Amino acid sequence: MQSTQVIVVGGGPAGLTAAIALGAAGVETVLVAPPPPADTRTTALLASSVTALEALGAWAHCRAEAAPLRTLRLVDDTGRLLRAPEVRFDAAEIGLDAFGYNIANRHLVTALEARAKALPALQRRSEAAAAVSIGDADVTVTLASDECLTARLAIGADGRRSLCRRATGIETNRRAGRQTALALSFGHSRPHNDTSTEFHTPDGPFTTVPLPGEARDQAKWNPVSRPDHAPNHRSSLVWVLGPGTARRVLAWDDAALSAEVERCSHSILGKTAIEPERGIFPLTTETAERFAANRVALIGEAAHVMPPIGAQGLNLGLRDAAQIAELVIAARETGADIGSDALLARYDALRRPDVTTRMLAVDWLNRSLLSDFLPVQSLRGVGLYALDRIGPLRRLVMREGIAPSASEPALMRGVALHQD
Ligand SMILES: Cc1cc2nc3c(=O)[nH]c(=O)nc-3n(C[C@H](O)[C@H](O)[C@H](O)COP(=O)(O)OP(=O)(O)OC[C@H]3O[C@@H](n4cnc5c(N)ncnc54)[C@H](O)[C@@H]3O)c2cc1C
């Protein structure tokens, strides 16, 4: 039985970030993480998440693979009688160069893994946790190979079917939606100009998000290339559909799907050619009743799952990771128990308002889009009209959207938790 200070279960972006934050501060940590499954998604990392990754020394590995998000457009494409005006958010309006950066999950995870490998206090076991058992003074994680690890605290970063969560007996409030998201990347003949566009359709949002790089067909589309030409002819797509439509669309060949992507984006990006990988994700809304108990703290999708609207999911997960690391490092400095009930209750209290407000906002936006009820549609239209017309309201929403005004972990403000 190996004894360590903290065990992090799950090597997705949230688990890796928590493990790096702890390892960089010299907290003896074991990351239990089998190689991650293939992922076609990209993540729009908001500015505060980028700041945190910079402070952890991981952003340098990401930068070349990430595209800035400078403008966000919301376009009502419901075709309904009552349609909302287009709303446009510009990062410059709140004094930012960009709202954040979009990066493929596989590049983000590779970058985090590279940073994790460089930390002597952080060890990795490339296998799954098979069991988690909780004692009064410690928690034991049994690996698939039967090796046992014990620690004062386990961080459950093991995703939506979290073994750690089940081991603690924490229940969730779960609602399976009637929607599925199709995630893919595509090249296009017109530049994206660092702009993400969210078309609101009656099935859910159809959102294009900038990526760096050229489309494979770029030379064919634009034979005369300019020397000052920025490589901005690739984007990712998150297309929320009803499950029946999603199954149909998934069966189309590349040419048919490319044509449909071009049609649904109203050709704003010109000709489109999808890249081969496609992934579908049934959408659910799920929140753990408690984010920590019995020497286990839950982070990322082990704690909360939400539809991919407004780029909130992993940004919340990174704030969870930063918050638990901050509490553990502070407790260790005073010699306190890093898995105590008091510390876990504090973690829950600090994360609850941020998670709850974002879950509610995303849920309301999504439901109001799907609703056939005229008063709900009018309310949504009035809200978007107000955002379009009232500058201070729009700026408040932009600031709150990229960082919560309450309880932001220090790492998100660039305060390093470790000394190099
Ligand atoms: C289509 C789509 C687009 C999205 N876009 C955005 C966006 O733009 N911005 C944003 O902020 N969020 C976005 N999200 C949400 C974001 O993708 C998730 O919040 C994020 O991937 C969750 O990361 P995680 O580390 O918590 O979980 P995961 O990525 O699910 O990682 C969990 C890890 O735990 C491992 N694991 C599971 N069980 C065990 C075990 N027993 N032992 C060891 N390891 C285990 C798994 O192998 C996995 O690697 C999007 C989601 C979808 C569906």
Descriptive notes:
With 420 residues, the chain is of the alpha/beta class. The chain has one domain: FAD/NAD(P)-binding domain, CATH 3.50.50.60. It has 12 helices and 21 strands. It has helices spanning 13-24, 47-55, 59-62, 105-117, 163-168, 218-221, 243-250, 254-264, 313-334, 341-370, 374-389, 391-402, and strands spanning 2-3, 6-9, 29-32, 42-46, 66-69, 71-76, 87-90, 100-104, 122-125, 129-134, 139-143, 148-151, 153-156, 172-188, 195-201, 204-211, 234-241, 272-288, 292-293, 296-298, 304-305. Helix 1 (13-24) packs parallel to helix 4, helix 1 packs parallel to helix 9 (313-334) and helix 11 packs across helix 12 (391-402). It is globular. The mean pLDDT is 89.
Q: Class by helix and strand content? A: alpha/beta
- Please identify the top-level CATH class: Alpha Beta
- Total count of helical runs of at least 4 residues: 12
Query: Helix proportion of residues, in percent?
Result: 25-40%
Give the second-level CATH assignment, the architecture: 3-Layer(bba) Sandwich
What's the number of domains?
Answer: 1
Quantity of strands, as a count:
21
User: What is the strand content?
Assistant: 25-35%
Look up the CATH topology.
FAD/NAD(P)-binding domain
CA radius of gyration: 22 Å
Helix-strand blueprint:
Blueprint: E1 2-3, E2 6-9, H1 13-24, E3 29-32, E4 42-46, H2 47-55, H3 59-62, E5 66-69, E6 71-76, E7 87-90, E8 100-104, H4 105-117, E9 122-125, E10 129-134, E11 139-143, E12 148-151, E13 153-156, H5 163-168, E14 172-188, E15 195-201, E16 204-211, H6 218-221, E17 234-241, H7 243-250, H8 254-264, E18 272-288, E19 292-293, E20 296-298, E21 304-305, H9 313-334, H10 341-370, H11 374-389, H12 391-402
Parallel strand pairs: 1-12, 2-3, 2-13, 3-9, 6-15, 13-20
Antiparallel strand pairs: 4-8, 5-8, 6-7, 10-11, 11-12, 14-17, 14-18, 15-16, 16-17, 18-21, 19-20
Helix pairs in contact: 1-4, 1-9, 9-10, 11-12
The structure holds flavin-adenine dinucleotide.
Flavin-adenine dinucleotide binds at residues 9-15, 32-34, 36-37, 41, 43-44, 128-129, 157-159, 163, 181, 183, 238, 281, 300-301, 308, 311-315, 317.
